[in-house]
Every structure is written in structure tokens, then in C-alpha cells.
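User: For a reading group we're discussing how well predicted structures match intuition. Take Beta-lactamase-related domain-containing protein. Before you show the prediction, I'll give you the sequence so everyone sees exactly what went in.
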Amino acid sequence: MAIIVDPFDQDFDTAVERGLEEWKVPGISIAVVRDGHTFSKAYGLATFPNKPMTTDNLFSAASTTKAFTAAATSMIIEDSKDSPSPINWDTPLASIIPEDFVLSDEYATAHTTLEDALSHRSGLPGHGWGLLCGDRDGSVRENVRTLRYLPLSEPPRTKLQYSNQMFIAVGHAMQKVSGQPLGSFLKKRIWGPLGMEQTFFSKEEAREIPKIAAKMATGYGWVAEKTGGHWVDESKANWRANTAGGSIVSSVLDYSRWVRELIDRGGPLKGHDSLFKPRTLCFDQDPTDLPTPYHAYALGWFVWMYRGQHLYSHTGGWPGFSTFVGIIPDKRFGIVLMANSTSARFLLSQLSVHLMDKLLGPASDPLHERNMAEFFARQEKEKTKLVEYQNEDIEVIKKRLFPSIACPRVPHALPLERYTGVYKHPTGSWMKVVLAEYGHLSIQNSHAPIALNLDLIHASGEFFVAKTPSSNSLPLDPLPAEFYVNTSGKAQRVGLAFEPALGKEKIWFERVDS
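Assistant: Thanks. Here is the predicted 3D structure of Beta-lactamase-related domain-containing protein, as C-alpha cells, for the group to look at:
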């Protein structure tokens, strides 16, 4: 019988403590499942100035919610087999919620299936700008009905494009099929049977119980400066409609029960193989991606081949929180890491590699060693990237975003105050353009899921650079922005190149005030 060794040795403790400081992470909670045994440990602080982190602390689990949405869909498909209207993975979403699920392309509307939506191959890009301009209190149905106004960037079933909106649509459809809200279904069919008593479908639900609210870790963001930086509380960020895509609140101990179910396959969940079957190859690389020959997306899970082992994992990220869940079923091994910092995603990927290598033993493959060196080099580069972005010379940014910019620069057509006002997108998303104290325009929306705040720096004519202020803990890459001034001399609309998958194409907002 194998001896099960506690993974939290001095070497690992040192790596965690060093990583907390290097990546500006207040605290982290970790659970490791190995051959039916669960080990857990917490480090750092749950809340400043001195509340220690524990393994009972709750976090926003963010996109690790997607695995539960896929699992619930699998169970609802199974439940429907004997019903008058059975569904399967090939069922088009539009056949379930025809009035709500309408895409900008007629073919895509008619043919996008549950499988397409849950494997990020619908052709719809992320459109994350909705988080900056939308309504944090909008309903799930309202969110799904905005899809008709969002342009696709690829033909369906040709490319992996991560989409929270597609998971929200599936959650909405599953509520109609099952006759109950997705959160209620998960609690009754998965969380309850697994004993996940500290798992909730929203922050609001968790905060209704005083003893649970007291366990919630505070999420923080780090504002990097030329010398040092400071923490900001990110607890106001909230996207109420993102239920099926990222709403779960939980702890590493509760998630370890979920991991054990996925490894042992002895609980309420059925159809494990269909959930883990790769559907869409991923060719883009994120700095936190593991050094593997390939990776793909299944249904709510990324699929990797790590040192000859099938690894299924998912990350979660939300302002103030980062999560990683990974399982290697053939080794009966799983890990859960949750931290209360936006930038912790880099630390979580490093620690997950540390734990997996501890399980698999020393690597003798020179290629793996080289890949690991490149992996850590990419991560090191990220440490300075935020500071470099925030302090990059504005003239350099202008030339990069507008390579054919006129010289000398053309002045804007109107006095700056005449560009101010409220601008709205057909989805209902909106932004307010104001004249800032320091003499230039600023775009704001304090009621968005993630509060919008962008400085508009004039480039030439009606073209501007949209740039995150240096005081923001969630900096965006600088974006090209443009105003359209009509023949009456009125700033009629403003466009920003929010969506990278659309290239230079801008998302346009029409002026709605006089």
C-alpha cells in the first residue's frame, strides 16, 4: 500500500511565502486530493490588516463555475430522455429559448448547439467590454437577449473563443428545461449529495447567512507604481447575470469534495467521459498556460497532456480573486487553489506545477525542462509588464495605435466639453464621457460589473487613445477610440476597439442626451 505524504512540506511552504510577496497576493488557500485523502493548508491574510486566511474561507470561484454548468447540463440531458421533448448535446439553443437566443448571424442562431456553446466554438468572441459598460444588476434573460447585437468574429465551429455569454445562455436554457433555477438544481443534485454545505450560487446568497458572510475573504487588487504600489478593495465588482459562467462562491474544502467525485466517479454525477472529451483545440497562448504539447477545451474543462498524463483543469478570475482547479484522474490526484488577489493567477499556475511535479517525481525529459524554463520566463516578464504599460510614453502609444497619424496633428473639431454626454450601445450598455479635472476627456460607468474608467488622450482629429488611469488595479491595454461628428457639428457617437478578435473594428455607442 502506497504511503500518502503530506504535500505541504517546508519546500512548498517557502515557495508559497515567496510567491505571495512576489505576486502581491494577500493570502491563499489550497487543498490537495491524493488517493482518497485530502490535505489542506492556508497562508497569508483573508482580510487586511490581520485576519488570517483559513481553509474555511470562501472565495469567488469565478469561471470554475463552468464545470458545474456543464455537469448540470449533462444531468438534465439524461433526465429528459423519457420526456416528450428530450434534448442532447446536439440540440440547438434556439430550439429551447427561441425568443431569447438570437445571434447576429442567422445560420449561427439556428445551428449553435449546447455542445458548441459549452466548448467555446460558437464564433462569438469574448466581448468582455460588456463588463465595463453593462448593468451589474441586469437579469440573465436580459443578458442573453443582447447576443443579437454582438458581432461574431469567426464562422461557427472553427476556433476556440472563450465566451461567458454562451454559458449564461446555456444556464438560461437549462432552467427552462428543468423547471428550476440552475443554482437550485446544483444544490439539490450535486452540492447536497456531496456535502458541499459552504457552496453558494452568488455572493448575495452567501452574505444572507451571517456565519457564512464572516468567512468570505476580501478580494484585493494591486496598483503597481514605479516604486512599490498599494492595495485596493475590489469587493464592489459584481456581475449578477453571470450565473452559469462564473457566479459560484465556495471554499477549497468544499471544492475538494467536487474533485474527489470527479476522480472516484461514485457520486451523483453521470457522463464524466462526455464532459472531459476534447471538443475544440486551442492555439492561442496565455502567460499562465502550462508547458504542454497541446491543449483543448472540453465541456467546462481545459484538457492538457502534462508529462504524459491527462490533466483537466480550469482557472477562475474576477477582480480580487483567482482560482485554479486541476485533476489527473489516472493518478487519483487533484488540486484546488483559491487566492484573494487579481494577480494571483500567475502564482496559482506556478504552484500547480510545483504540486504536480511533486506527484510525478523528477523530470528527466530535456524538452520538458526547456519548456518549464520558458514557462517561468514568461511569468517573470509579466511582473514588470503592468508597470511598463502604466508608464509607457503616450507618444509611443499614439504611434503604435495610429501608425499613419498626421504630422503635425490635426486638432479635434469641437471644444472638448461638446464631446461630453451619455452614449449607449444597442445591448443597453452605456458610458458617460466627462471632462476631467486635468483637462482631458474621461469615459466612466460606475454601475458596470467592473467600474469603467478610461482617460481619452487626444491623438489627432477625432481619434483618441483610451487608457486606464494609473490608479486602476485592472489596467487595459491602450485602445484606439474615435468620435463621429455629424454635419450639424454634434458628437453623435463614439467607438472603441474593445474586442481584440474584431481587429480594428470598433464597438459604437450612440449619443442619447441632447
